Amino acid sequence: MSTSAKPARKARAKPAPALALVRPESSSQRARAYQGFTQQILSGNIRPGQFVSQRELMTLLDMPLGAVREMIPRLEAGGLVKTVPQRGLQIAHVDLKLVRNAFQVRSLIEREAVRHFAATVSAAELETITASHQDILQRASADVPDAALLDDAQAVDWGLHDRMVDALGNEIISEIYRVNSLRVRLIKLEQSVITPARLIPAMQEHLRFIAALQQRDATAAVQLLEAHLDSARNRVLTADSILSP
Predict the structure, then answer these.
(1) Are residues 83 and 226 in contact, defined by beta-carbon separation less than 8 angstroms?
(2) Which CATH architecture has domain 25-91?
């Protein structure tokens, strides 16, 4: 008696390889490490051209080695550091090319941001911005400037520029601008162009620019912004260390 053949078993499909998941805590630590690195630049604890090891960054940022290592590709992609064999990480070196490139990127983004900001910012916010600038100008004009002046002035200065760019509502542009801002701040740290005496013309330039915003005159605001950025770039380009070989 013949027996019917059993139906062949279907081959069991192999499970798809598991995707490598990024743990939320890992991503959070990487972001905190990057923010810490940013703050170290702003405070002047990390200088242009400086060499630093990963373990030194661990101590400086108070972050685990894993978070520091995960942060490095982002810094390299932004041109903020480069890996030098046998030496470690080198913070971006300031030269003519960096100055010109960084200020060109800044100008391209801020021109568009100003046009949008002139049409959308509220009168109340502009009044607040004006008052903060007038306060810095008054403090910079004092016979003996207070110890917090330079830090407060930078916060007011960059706060306005950051606010205009963020008002575009484009996260990609804001991220590009933030990274480029770090390059600009490295440049200013290298050239030591932030002094009480130089705050006065910078704040006056800002106030003229803000007045154009209050008039909703986008054309004048763009022209005044470009003059302000040209002035900042020229102060850097005329510094001795930039022009020296």
Answers:
(1) no
(2) Orthogonal Bundle (1.10)
Helix orientation angle between 123-140 and 149-166, rounded to the nearest 10 degrees: 160
Residue length of the chain = 245
Return d(Cα 10, Cα 223) in angstroms, integer: 73
Q: Which of the four pLDDT bands, split at 50, 70 and 90, describes residue 192?
A: low
CA 206/CA 15 separation, integer angstroms: 61
Give the Cα separation of 241 and 244 in Å (integer). Answer: 5
Q: Given this model, what pLDDT does residue 146 score?
A: 87
Place of tokens 């090891």: 53
| All structural domains of the chain with their residue ranges | 25-91, 96-243
Sign of the Cα torsion 167, 42, 146, 141 reads: negative
CB 75 within 8 A of CB 69: no
Lowest-pLDDT choice from 89-93, 135-139, 188-192, 205-209: 188-192
The full DSSP string for 177-220 is: HHHHHHHHHHHHHHHT---HHHHHHHHHHHHHHHHHHHTT-HHH
Between helices 196-214 and 96-120, what is the axis angle to 10°? 40
Name residue, tokens 């403090």: 139
Q: Which residue type sits at 99?
A: V
What distance separates the 2 farthest-apart alpha carbons in the chain? 116
CATH 1.20.1300.10 fits 96-243, yes or no: no
What does the radius of gyration of the chain's CA atoms come to, in whole angstroms?
25
What does residue 31 show for φ and ψ, rounded to 5 degrees? -65, -40
As beta bridge partners, residue 83 has 89
Q: Give 3-state DSSP helix, strand, coil % of the chain, rounded to 5.
A: 65, 5, 30
